Amino acid sequence: MPERVRIVIPGDDPPQLQGSPQLERLRQAGEVVMYVDRPATVEEQLRRADGATCLINSRSAIKWGGSVLRQLPQLRMLTTCGIGTDAIDLTAARELGIVVCNVPGKTAAIVAEHALALMFAVARRAWFQTDALKHGRWIGMDNVFLRGKTLGVIGTGNIGLEMARLGLAVGMKVVAWSFHPSPGREKELGIPFTSLDDLLKSADVVTLHVKLTEQSRRLIGARELALMKPGALLINTARGAVVDTDALVAALNSGHLGGAGIDVFEIEPLPADYPLLKCEHVVLTPHNADQTPEGIEFLNVGVVENVLAFLAGTPQNRVV
Are 152 and 126 in contact (CB under 8 A)? Predict the structure, then answer.
């Protein structure tokens, strides 16, 4: 390992590490180069990353496909500033010997709290009724009382665990589904695991907390939405592509679903003609479930510690 390594943050947009005191810790370990906007082209992306030993993908906004990684022969480590690694071709990274790390668990409580907020906002028709009042309409409409209702938690990692706890605290019945169920996890959660179909059929609110993989892509499509109870609510703070957006729009517009709270989208930032924007009973936030001052700094500490641990020869939170 060279004495003075090059550590590059190729596109800190939305702002993540800008102004963080954690940057000084990085500067003690190597040359730190930060770009505060996203590269407009692949050529610009490669120019920024050229010569980097370590890359920090601060908001996972930049994609690192195999064709890009193969043009960065000096790259030895890439870390996300969060849980998801779907922006990185992990197979190519493994082939090239590039260590990939993430920051799991540090903002689980913050993301779960955001999911809870979306659930309440959708259940109480907060956006729909606010919009109606702003346009001079006084609309009487039934809200959803959540206590005693069933919350279905899909994905039982750190965030799913926190969401289950919050559901229980509200007084909801909670059931869960996971790609990898285990008696130990079921005991830790203190709630029953069930099949995905049974969860969808029984839950009044379904909340998504799985990472995006080829296995989870479009996990919730037209078939799964049709299985959900009439009037049920869907909350997604995982990844946009976990849900088939066209199928979700159809389920909302038909009245089958009672509403949806969505923080993540298949296209980000949202184009003006994105179909969910035209749905009435939705509450939408711009992929910022972990964006509180505390959450941002938790992630900054984690990502810097990932780089420092790698440079010390003891990689942590290693995905590849």
Answer: no
Residues 99 and 126 in one domain: no
Number of domains in the chain: 2
Which pLDDT band, with edges at 50, 70 and 90, does 190 fall under? Answer: confident
Residue 5: strand, helix, or coil: strand
pLDDT digits (tens, 9 = 90+) for 126-153: 999 999 999 999 998 899 999 999 999 9
List the catalytic residue out of 31, 266, 268, 297: 268
Q: Confirm whether 145 is domain-assigned.
A: yes
48, 125, 239, 281: which is the annotated catalytic residue?
Answer: 239
Instruction: Dump pLDDT digits (tens) for 74-126.
Output: 999 999 999 989 999 999 999 999 999 999 999 999 999 999 999 999 999 99
End-to-end CA distance of the chain: 19
Q: Tell me, yes or no, whether 131 and 37 share the same domain.
A: no
Extended beta strands in 15-95, E state: 30-34, 54-57, 77-80
Residue 189 lies in a domain: yes
- Token duo for residue 242: 């976990």
The pTM of the full predicted model, rounded to 2 decimals, is 0.91
User: Would residue 287 show up in a list of annotated catalytic residues for this protein?
Assistant: yes
Tokens found for residue 23: 């940057």
- Which residues span the domain enclosing 27? 5-106+293-311
Same domain, 24 and 142: no
**Residue 92 sits in the same domain as residue 134:** no
Is 239 known to be catalytic? yes
Burial class (CB in 10 A: 0-12, 13-18, 19+), 254: exposed
> What is the domain-level CATH number for residue 257?
3.40.50.720
Tokens found for residue 78: 């890439």
Same domain, 269 and 306: no
Q: Residue 61 domain-assigned?
A: yes
Distance, in Å, from the CA atom of 198 to the CA atom of 176, rounded to the nearest integer, reads 10
Give catalytic status of residue 256 as yes or no.
no
